[in-house]
UniProtKB/TrEMBL annotation:
It is found in: Cytoplasm. This is Cytidylate kinase. It comes from Arthrobacter zhangbolii. It catalyses: dCMP + ATP = dCDP + ADP; CMP + ATP = CDP + ADP. ATP binds at G10, P11, S12, G13, S14, G15, K16, S17, S18. Residues 6-215 form the Cytidylate kinase domain. It comes from the Bacteria. CDD domains: CMPK. One of its GO terms (cellular component) is cytoplasm. Its EC number is 2.7.4.25. The gene is cmk.
Amino acid sequence: GKPLVVAIDGPSGSGKSSISREVARRLHAAYLDTGAMYRAVTLSCMEAGIDLTDSVAVEAAAETADIALSMSPNEEWVRVSGRDVTDAIREPSVSSSVSAVATTLGARAELVRRQQQLIRDSGLRIVAEGRDITTVVAPHAEVRILLTASEEARLRRRGIQLGGTQSAAALKEQVLVRDAKDSTVVDFQQAADGVTTIDSSDLDFEETVAAVLDVVFSST
Ligand code: C5P
């Protein structure tokens, strides 16, 4: 068939993972969660006792990490050296350290290369989401979307996702501080040329999926 690469970027708490996964299901496409790869490298570094401020060591860890992840929207798993880390990479300790890997340019270069290979391996029918998919990983994607939401909506959604047990301060740390750190190397706050912005602040899950599919069908 014709290539259909749908690139979706956005800040944390924008709902991009669950939305992208559902859009992939509806399109019978593969799904790539690039954030899971940054998280997997971060977990590997933490377990190996690597100093996350040592960019040479972090880059080497990214280059040698044996990461496998599901590219089916219907099953979620991530493995490092064959070990299941699906839940471990979502731990708060990983979330609060992942920006250190994401801001190591050599590590980014390696993960971008791998992501581009995974997109090619999908047969170019895929929904890929992250922070730099529309701009760096797949700037020539058939569909490029920036999924945004107000700060208030993002904090509320991430709070619900984490089971409603976090304090407001902890949530802010996890959402806003991480976005601020990530923003030093990738711009996912404003849409690049040719990228369609969808603001999901006042949309529910179904409405947001429909808005993304509208962009897909109107641009292909
Ligand atoms: O999407 P998620 O919140 O799981 O991403 C985790 C982290 O991975 C982000 O906070 C960011 O540091 C990094 N990331 C990135 N570029 C991507 C995807 C994720 O830098 N394309």
